[in-house]
Predict the structure.
Amino acid sequence: MLAIAIVISFCVGLYMTGLNMSPTRLKLYNWHKWAGVVILLLSTARLLWRLTHRPPPLPESTTGLQRTAAHAGHGVLYALFFAVPLAGWAYSSATGFPIVLFGILPLPDWVPKDRELAETLKGVHKWLAYGLAAVVVGHVLAAFKHQFVDRDGLMARMGVGRQ
């Protein structure tokens, strides 16, 4: 669920920024903000689950370098799961356009309204999102390598193909 929300939010973010000012663009910006809050909540739940449930062991054929890369990659993923939506929230706060979750629940601004800060945070949010996309692509490619080249059962460890 988290992965799907991230991919869709990323695609909507790319699309909406290219639109001229219109009701559609405003709706997409609000939807994107709501998705960011949901991603933040799902990320929190996922992190709590991971902290209380050990993952299955990696396949024995996994080399030391692969283990290091897997742990580092997961650490970066988790950091970006939080950094991207928090940077977006800060950007929204700095622009003076608050997040009103689902049009009902106003969320607090957590940085002051500041045009210069908003421009900086816009870039931070954008580049963190691109970074997350790159790490996700690397994660997927590594999983495919394990599935189709190494054939070591790693995808079953992730829950894909479990009986």
User: Anything to note?
Assistant: The chain is about 70% helix and 0% strand.
